[in-house]
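Worked problem 6 (solution included).
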Amino acid sequence: MNSQAASGHIWLIFFFFTSPAKGNLETPSFQPGILYQYRYSLELQLDYVSRLSLQGSWMQAEALVQVHLLWRNHAGEQLLQIQIQDLKVYHDSKHEKIQNVTRDPSTEVVLGKEDTAELQLPVFLHWNNGKVEGIYGDSGGRPQTLNLKRGLISLLQFQLHSGTATEEDVSGSCQVTYVVYKDSIVKTKDLQSCTRPKFGFTSVNKIFGVLWQPTSKSFYSVQGSLIQSVLSEESHVVSPTLKSSIGTKITSRQQLKLVSSSMPGPAETPGESLQEALAGILEKHQPISTVSELFKRTCMQCPSLKTYLRTLGNRRVKMDVSKVSTTWQFHRFIQMLRGAKKRDVLQLLRKAPEKIVTFFIDAAVAAQSTASLAALSEFLDFSNKGQVPLLEQFLYAAAFSPRPSKELLRLVLDKLNGKELDPAIWETGIIVIGSLVGKLCRMKLCGLQNALLPETIPTLLHYAEEGSAGVSGTAVSALQRFSSQHITGEVKKAMRRIFHQKSRNYEKTSRLAAAEILLDNEPLPMDLTNILLATKELEAEMSKFLLSKIQTSLHSHHHPARKAMKEILKDPQINNYNYLSKAGSSSSFSGPLAVTDDMLSTFSLELLFTESGLLRKSVSGFMLRSHGHQLQAAQVSVEAQGLESVLGESNPEGEEEQELMAGMSAIFFDVQLRPIVFFQGYTDLMAKVLLSSGEPTSVVKGTVLLMDHEQAIPLQSGLQTMVKLQGALGLDISANIDMNLWEQESRTSIKTRGGLAIDFTAEIDAPFFQASVKSQTEAEASINFDTAVRFSGNPVLMCLQLREEQLPYREIFTISESSPNQSITVRKGRRGTIAGRELSLHRANSEMCKILLTEAKEQ
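Solution. The predicted structure is:
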């Protein structure tokens, strides 16, 4: 521990054991004719949160700061000249030892003449009883240098009484709290409260964002009216929400200590007012904002799109979107496209091989620059039926955008407006507009209040109650996606009428969806009791499904009905065999897939059978929960109806005759996809059976940008930290259904393959030093969900299999440092493989799988 650090800790102990008292400090001031000298030091450390063998980056600066009074008035206002002299900068050279370079533990940074001259230019502080009223000087220099001076001046801002106030300094306009002692002051700044000019961006889904945990404290020692010393310490822990272990910790420490107050200084400048005094000092006095000027580091070695286009014709065209290597390419293209001109983006889209043009469309939408959107607008022709696959790729890329802009929505609306469109494109377009408008509302970029547009709820309620069987089911399903705050008393009344069939009969899937809305949204004990009582009168499979759903809620710590349900089941008239033990195959299951310090991933499966034992509907879903946020990562619903007529069964009494149909709908990352129909009607079924190629149907294929975050954090010292997070997922999902009417068997297979790549970087920029720490994480996953059903027996047998293939992953950690006299980069990595597994869903499924799989082996 060096002497400065030791003295800093002694001060902290002193402040800790000193009791607060009413402030009796004199009004802070500097006296005329004296040159005050302070020793200023700045320490900065940038490191990983997790304990890695890789050392972080460390830098220290020391300087002499000269302060003298130029002008004052009787109200306590003063104009001070502040100048930095003899700046020396050191950085830790442990990384150089790793590179087999023998040097001292710390290396002095050689400053250039221009840097030294710019740093030594004085700034002028308008100081009023400890408050920074304004800064004046030459604003033509680099922002990094000016920010360093802002950080120094911000140390001179404090107040003489305890309490909370809002102050403006280098961090922005922030809430600060003071505790005043006899001859000392403790200042705590709430960095989360700071407001400053908008800079950067973040993902709409907070689960794909960044956790930021900052602290800031300053300790002032004052003797009479003179500042003796200031110690300011702050820390920032920044990490991806889903993976805090790859986060970064930034610690910054400033110290200002009086070393001389006896040297003679310049005389006061005459002037009745501050403006007169400034006019006498500066030819053109320019006010300088006290708030840090945020900026982006210029990348000198980043590839450009123009360079890439020169070699486009010579490149391989084979590209597998589910491979992580392709996802990293996607990262690079986003960066290239964000800095490219429209003509270059348009050339890329027009010259790209047919097999990879969809990849470039995904990247252009993710880049979301003015140039890339303009190029897409010119390239895409929505009236050209030959472009249908490209148009659908563009629309889904827009829907998955992590932070869509008004310009992107305007482009989608313009392309859909007033054109004769392919029906599939029109349906997809409507879904995409809903997703875009919803996200813009969550970003507070529209006049509506919520992502799912609550103004539509009265319309949905009307169709839920009055519509035909299909329309009613769709409306109730739409209502299920609203958050609890929008499931009002009116909504619940309508759901009760549907579930209990007060005015008419409803299709069973609508009734069950209505019951789920009542169960999942701050359920009332009355509703829970009535649903349990109703199971005695329901058909066996509906009753079995609801009871299974209720039992699942009892085992889920996150379910809103859990506590109330436990109370209700204390009643022996309800908690008995007659109510809670029902025969049937329908079930509801939910359980954890993976648990980490930051995330809980759960899998749910719901199966609803008809009374004749046929599968009516299956819903499988993956949910992510992290730090108070949740996301429907995936939900796949496979539905079949009317199969009773094919097998000679009759419809249950009271239900409408249903058309023979099977199809699938899916939600990925809270985006509803256009439903896929496997067959519709008996003729279509026979055609599909006879002419089936056995090839799977593509549900989703493309690369999605999930995480897109850029945040500038101005430090108290005036240095700037830039935090960047970019995460992308290459996704290839296909589905296949195979029906054998002769053998009375069906098989459904949903295969999901993906490559995930996450890049998290924290950068520090000073006029004389740059450092960055980077964490890169990659993984490839494959999940198969297979269903086998045999109709010939009684009961119908069905086997569900959810298999995760082995998952290889890799992490790379990189530290880079750059100063005028040298640059260095050090990397370390680790890799591993998570073994594959088959999930055990529930006991009844396991028993049926044993029967079906044993018979299959014997055949």
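Discussion: The chain has 24 helices and 28 strands.
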